[in-house]
């Protein structure tokens, strides 16, 4: 069978005895899904074949054969030297109390020594009884051992961080506390300063007391300190990483990995994380990396239990779907979905159609009002759009949740906060419009707000002066501001590519803000649903596990250049030690075992007359492939829609279910808006009367319907079906009653279908795509001719009438699939054994050498030293622009305008009409970017020139230029409706700062006057 699997497709056309078969070779990939049995009369897969058959041998065979190229199972799993690859680590379980799991990862050669009880006074005393996980973590810290604490939001993880700070200060060591965002750093600074006083803050924007023993900073700042060899690190005993689960962030997660790798081995760590299922794997990486034990303290205990409710659009009540014990109530979930189903299409548009408030109160309005009436405030309302946040908040503007005294306090806090603004800026629409809402106890929090307003709103909410806060999901990123209730305005979000259900991890993170410890008996989470979801999706969302901590490591030029500059470490070392590589190493034993098991299964399958069976198998697999091609033609709306009249018999089959024959009732066209292009993508839904399982129709949406079992008397139900799920269209049409609401009328159609099947025992006749449907496409004719030839070969094959045909075919199919799995597992094993991204590193080094950033010996040049200082923008392009003299003839206003292209990231349809004084520098920048793209492409890096150029967006160049020329912020706000007009400019001052830092390296002054000009016109930093 081996060579038969490896033979090219032309062997199918040879005589059966001439196949050069060899029993030692192996099968190659086979397509999944069996061959559909044909009618007695030879037909195409989805229709009859026209007359005028061609001989199979005359067909031109494509190179991509049925089963792929010959499979080589060269090395066995036993031959792999895993000992040289695997990190040598052992994990020891530690006895602890119920509700808390304690494990420790330590080097394989080290003997586990139990933690010693504390001797003497604790570094910090607490006025409350510590939870079990807090006591375990503090015991690890007292023993000077690193620890990862994984617990739910608001469980009290900060206690562990505070204790390590207290211990470090007592031992006269310095301690660094890192956080993912500046807002969280600011909050932690305030908290730690009140507790310890000897605390400093470093965020890039602000530096306070940098010589303090305890430094609060963002992870990016710590990374920069490590690359520069800061003297501070010599005195550091502990480093605390807050919200370490953000290491999986696609854009910024790599910074965490770089930092952890660069830190010295003698430092101890406290990692604070939300619940992650692979916490042990992360601890093993730390142990492997820094040759020290790392403990894992895990608890899923939630101090304040949560109740989860669903509010179906079109309904008038809440449905408890997960109780405080964590039990999923499927009956309540199905009732909620039934309400949504009964409401029909009106429910789907109800929320979005009422944001303007013109048709009466929206669902959000009703729910928030109910929350206030039942004293379930404060409530955080999460929306996945900044515009939605504001629209929903405005709908509540007639409600008032604050007392007169609270109003006065809000106004006092607000006025004190905005005192730093000029009189003109105090009249900005954003500033003026938000105060009336705040006084009523209603707040808004999203990335488009002025930083001063965001901080003010956070303070007001934490002081209990805001009862309803409308926020985007960034508010859940660790800022410690819990509420009693959390409300989701939607269960779907746009993630930059498409609309999808929010993941269980995202839901856990945001819903975790519900329930204030020591204040609420239980927290309340309400999920508004305006689209039908299956119980499986609902359970996965509401009861699913947290997202695993998977590495987002990727190479950047800034990383490579900095590593070339540092003598003790190189880019290859960074790749080898990354969590990304470690996760692949840890997968090796499992994959090797999988290969071994598959090989045993493969060798255990013996097929009589193997070569002949494989030849027959190939023919049938090719017929399946050709049948799919014919289906693709038939499914094109322009061909099939004219034949989907009421009464048409169609076959419905999805990946999970096969409904068999049903009857078309109607079809409808819907517009699917493509987010990236804004174009309309027609979507056709066919309503088909199908025989369904009664149980699946009970209290559930029709989309959740399942086909009736063979031994069951099902119930005919109209089910909406996507066009591509019609696996066959019959030439038969049936009469259907006008009124399908009575069950008897629907069941009568089932009897008619059964009569048709009896009348055509060899199979219900299908529409011929050429003769009946009139498809004149030459490509279809070619496919049909190939189908006919392969069918002729199949029917004339000696096995076609063999009584054991099906059993032999299934055996062959099974063996071919195992061969596919072996090949995939071996690819995975090979990938895990090699250092990943090494080829990309070689390509990036090639780019740096060709552009003069480094020598052939990987010695960093002057350009490279400048690029090392740039981490907030494209380091190659900005450095090239500086060295090419592009800035030399620009005014400071033109330079600031041009630099805006590096940091503006929002999608915007506004493309300004630029004057020549702005368009000229933009063209020069784009020309430089094209040159970089060309060099990158020549160096074998995958790069799309247009995508690369499109990442530098000039949408706000005219706005920034106007601002730099002295216009007020109020004036430029009228020039654009972009929310992020202020945040988008938050990085140019840093870019200028970088240019000033680069001054000694390139022996000349670089726009100090421009930097001064910029900072003088930006009052918000």
TrEMBL record:
Keywords associated with the record: ATP-binding, Helicase, Hydrolase, Nucleotide-binding, Nucleus, Phosphoprotein
Domain of life: Eukaryota
Keyword Disulfide bond: no
Domain annotation Helicase ATP-binding: ranges: 138-294
Residue ranges of domain Helicase C-terminal in the record: 395-567
GO terms of biological process kind: maturation of 5.8S rRNA; RNA catabolic process
Segments of skewed composition (Polar residues): 19-28
EC annotation from Swiss-Prot or TrEMBL: 3.6.4.13
Positions of the UniProt region annotated as Disordered: 16-57
Compartments (UniProt record): Nucleus
InterPro entries found in the cross-reference section: Beta-barrel_MTR4, DEAD/DEAH_box_helicase_dom, Helicase_ATP-bd, Helicase_C-like, MTR4-like_stalk, P-loop_NTPase, RNA-DNA_Helicase, SKI2-like
Pfam families for this protein: DEAD, DSHCT, Helicase_C, MTR4-like_stalk, MTR4_beta-barrel
Any one cellular-component term (Gene Ontology): nucleus
EC class of the enzyme, as a word: hydrolase
Example of a GO MF term: hydrolase activity
Chief place of localization: nucleus
Family membership noted in the UniProt record: Belongs to the helicase family. SKI2 subfamily.
Name of protein: RNA helicase
Taxonomic lineage: Eukaryota, Metazoa, Chordata, Craniata, Vertebrata
